[in-house]
Amino acid sequence: MSLDNLATLFHDELRDVLSAEKQLLKALPKMAKSATCEKLKSAFNNHLAQTADHIQRTTDAFEETGKVAKAKTCEAMKGLLKEADEILKMNGEPAVKDAILIAAAQKVEHYEIATYGTLCTWAKLLGYTRALDLLKQNLSDEEAADKHLTVLAQAINREVLAI
Hints:
It is a single chain. The chain has helices at residues 6-34, 38-61, 75-88, 94-126, 129-161. It has 163 residues and is mostly helical. Helix 1 packs parallel to helix 3 (75-88) and helix 1 runs antiparallel to helix 4. The protein is elongated, with a radius of gyration of 17 Å. The model has no long low-confidence stretch (mean pLDDT 95).
């Protein structure tokens, strides 16, 4: 890819986040299965449904670029999910494991928030109004998921302190 203009960057970053969302779609069921706290399981399962919506919205956001919606491997998400997968294989106290699962999930959320924030800025500058609306929805979902994980973490972390 040649870094010669903002439209090219926007398209490339859309391809990257599409890959990130598709990778997350595969990882979330494993994270939900591994969680012991029912509220955490529910949060992961709810975000799984949202992630399918994010994939559709991101795919739709390609329309204004005039280019095909084709993912390119997101190495950052690959690394974050590799770390999460290593956590899933660990043994330990259930609440402690839930606490580290939340930490891994929030790393993913923060990456997605940063990516969608950038894409929204670029879409606005490029005049991609439909893409901006779609990506803002994804950003809002990611921010809400992060806030929900923070609430869960507060309770679970207190539980971990008591161990």
